[in-house]
Fold this protein.
Amino acid sequence: MDYQSLIARAIEAKQSAYAPYSNFRVGAALLTKSGKIYTGCNVENVSFSATSCAERTAVCKAVSEGEREFAAIAVNGDNKDYLPPCGICRQVLAEFCDMETFQVILANDEQDYQVVTLDRLLPGAFLAENLKSGESHSPPGKEV
Ligand code: THU
């Protein structure tokens, strides 16, 4: 995998960040299994919880274009050390990405980066298989 090119795209995407409240810009570049790259930046909102992180922006762009198979994501932030994706972004990545093989590239620049698989960032993830309906559900109104 060409980590350098993916990181370069994340750094470039950071330039579009809309971060007037935190002044902390983040860029992400998401690689599909077919080799396409979708970028994203953080898009903040005065109602802070409406903010979209760079990683989720990239995932939403890709999925809305019909992509669902992903190989890796590079993330670059305005901080001095590797930026770990937030918990919500980890969960969103887990929706589409294979936990054991999907690579998260925490990049300070094209030469200085760490690669971790998603299962290391989100151990014990809540996944679709955990949502199966079964007899163990409490009936309505029953206290648990
Ligand atoms: N942020 C991201 O874009 N990705 C992350 O994984 C961590 C946080 C953004 C959200 C917000 O705009 C700013 O960084 C400060 O939290």
Q: What stands out?
A: Residues 56 and 88 are 9 Å apart (CA to CA).
